[in-house]
Amino acid sequence: MDIEAGDILVMKKEHPGCGSNRMRVIRAGADFKLSCEGCGRTFMTPRSKCEKKIKSVLRDQAEKG
Ligand SMILES: [Zn+2]
Question: What would the pLDDT profile of 3-42 be if each residue is shown by its tens digit?
Fold first, then answer.
């Protein structure tokens, strides 16, 4: 799966406690650093584990620098 920093991940499950299922990608590598769009919390998760939970990816269509 092609995921870049700045993408919004729509997850299959809501974030416990806040109910948002959208996570912004802060950094993409072997691990993803994600920021919850609902509560703003940031956390690291292994790419392989995270990819199984993604429903869809939203990408800003604007050209980057
Ligand atoms: Zn949250």
Answer: 999 999 999 999 999 999 999 999 999 999 999 999 999 9
Distance 41 CA to ligand 1 centre (A): 6
Q: What is the domain count for the chain?
A: 1
Give residue 20 CA to ligand 1 midpoint distance, Å: 6
Angle at alpha carbon of residue 58, lines to 52 and 64, rounded to 5°: 125
Rounded-to-integer distance, Cα 64 and Cα 47, Å: 23
Range of the domain at 46: 8-58
Instruction: Give residue 2 CA to ligand 1 midpoint distance, Å.
Output: 23
Does residue 1 lie within any of the structural domains? Answer: no
